[in-house]
Amino acid sequence: MSPLARPRRRKALGAALLAAVLLFALFTFTGLGQKALCLGGAALCEPRAITEPGSGTSRAPGAGTADAKPPAPKGCARPRDCGYPDETTTGPRITTLTPQSTGNAAIRTDGTVIRGWDITGSLDIYANNVTVIDSRITSTNWWGINLRPGFSGLRILYTTITAVPGKGPNNGGSDYAVSNMSTSSIEIGHCDISVFGDALSMGQGDIHDNYVHDIRPFTNLDGEWQHTNAVISNGGGKGKLIIRHNTLLNPTPVEQGASAAIGLFADSAPVTHTVVDDNWLAGGAYTLYAGGKDSAGIEVTDNVFSPQYYPAGGRYGAVAYWNPAGKGNVWRGNRMADGTPVVPAPEG
In sequence order, what E strands does 50-111 have? Predict the structure, then answer.
């Protein structure tokens, strides 16, 4: 046997195995497979619990950052100075991602884990307990990731989600980095999110340790400026919405559609069971739209309102539509970045 024959056979065998693996991944990714699959290299897909970097301990789904923390120091000029997320603490923890051009991919296999991918496209989730981690998504669709009704358990961690300005379907715009169309909670943590008009859209979920920034204004298909929010809830959530320890920036000018950094709107039903705790907030017409007259169970505590875009946080002020008489509503410890307390103005 020629000394070159064995290496050639190894290469041929390796190519055949690679083709088989890719074919299997394709079938499972599009929902034709029946088993949970980690879509990443072997080094990225160990069957262990997802851990915080360097911690060596697992964190249960939905755990968020509920541990007690000291209040942020006063007088911070930027989020990082007060310990809030930015580009250095969010997004993938691994440096080499695998390019994948997926288009609008439908995930239909329960337990799928997408790890270490650099996706050009978007993910439409028709499955339970899907995890997207240590990845990047660049979308030209309505959303980056969308959870469909009837499904649960979606987790999106340490992932960058962005869109291509001018290439989205809404007259060039893209609406949602993450959209939760289900009635179940989802977890979004340690993500770097930009461009989308209503970046995080849901009535229930655990939104923690994220950096939302550089929202891009656009005129929609109706020819109007699309309203923009870093986080938006239209009310009627079937579970609890927790928004904790995020940096949420809305730089969009009011004349180009800015609503809020956090918009709690009773468009579908009253806003209830919502926690807004320990976030760095800036921008919008008002930085926080707080639910309105029928809201209940709204806890707004220990947030920092930054003058990054406007002296009062938002163009017209820090907060609007706060209902102090709502059952279970709590306003406590909220302040400007220099430590000045933020007190909601009475409605009417």
Answer: 98-107
CA distances from 302 to 240, 261, 319 (A): 19, 16, 14
CA angle centred on 339, ends 334 and 342, rounded to 5°:
35
**Distance of alpha carbon 85 from the chain centroid:** 13
In DSSP notation, 247-307 reads EEEE---GGGTEEEEEEE--SSS--EEEEEES-EEEEBSEEEEE--TT-EEEEEES-EE--
pLDDT digits (tens, 9 = 90+) for 196-215: 989 999 999 999 999 999 99
- CA dihedral 116→118→124→127, nearest 10 degrees, is -10
The full DSSP string for 157-199 is: ES-EEEE-TT-BTBTBB--EEEEE-SSS--EEES-EEEE-SEE
Q: Are strands 117-125 and 136-139 parallel, antiparallel or unpaired?
A: parallel
- Residue 4, CA distances (Å) to 10, 11, 206 in order: 10, 11, 57
Boundaries of every domain in the chain: 88-336
Report helix, strand or coil for 98: strand
Query: 0.70 cut: is pTM over it?
Result: yes
From the list 233, 205, 228, 206, the residue with the least C-alpha distance to 295 is 233
206-255 pLDDT, tens digit each: 999 999 999 998 888 888 898 899 999 988 777 899 999 999 999 999 99
